[in-house]
Amino acid sequence: MELKFYHIYIIYTLALGIMVLAVVPRPEIRRLSFLGIIYGAITDFWIIIFATHLLGVGGYKNYYPFAFMGIPFFPLLAWTFYFILYLFFLPQRKPWIIIYTIVAAGYSTIFSNILQNLGIFQWNVGRLFIPYLLYLTWFSIVTFTYYKYFKNKEFY
């Protein structure tokens, strides 16, 4: 079987899902899943609408059968898994929280460039500065709102 571009979405989504199951305890998965959906899938959905469809900053491509109305399915699920991991490993003390957020934004910038090299993502405004600002803003908002509103809450 020949590997198609759109199979990459399945592979990295499964890899993230397996990492969540392997590393995060089940009670924490239950606790963080709701936030993973909000911070990951729902936020990425709106980023796709605004950044991709309205502003043309960049977006997913070559997702063929795995999308509806130009919204690919697997990246939304992958971002949900990503934010379960992100929140699970989020440090407790302030200098580490800031470093963690900055490094996570850098990682996501690098990963999005790898996806661009693989032909399933496209940045239209440069590959470093604007993407990094987008991820840093996204992750900073997630980190701030998580600590302010959700840190000790149960959602199940």
TrEMBL record:
Q: Which domain of life is it from?
A: Bacteria
Q: Which UniProt keywords apply?
A: Membrane, Transmembrane, Transmembrane helix
Segments crossing the lipid bilayer: 6-24, 36-57, 63-89, 96-116, 128-147
**Protein name from the UniProt record:** DUF2878 domain-containing protein
